[in-house]
Amino acid sequence: MYTQPSRIEIVGNTLALQWLDGDETYLEASKLRANSPSAENKGEVDIFGNVSGGEVPREHLDIKVLKFVQIGNYAIRIHFSDGHSTGIYSWDYLKSLSNLK
Asked: pLDDT, tens digit, for every residue of 10-20?
């Protein structure tokens, strides 16, 4: 489990995170937006396991990260140029995105 990064910055169109162990993670805005963990993006699961809602997977080539807001000591909420801002990205989730191709 990852703890809060020591530093987070928006560098161009990339979210850069430096972890306490010295490791660094760089995530492009398009990857972050396409993988938003929000119910709006992924859908919601009901008590029977059925998923409703969610977006059709697509590329977000012209998307930009406008800002981020820290949520407690466990995550950030990212505000994108298309108005999307409902995804809460935990530290572990951000680290796992760096391993996705």
From this structure: 999 999 999 99
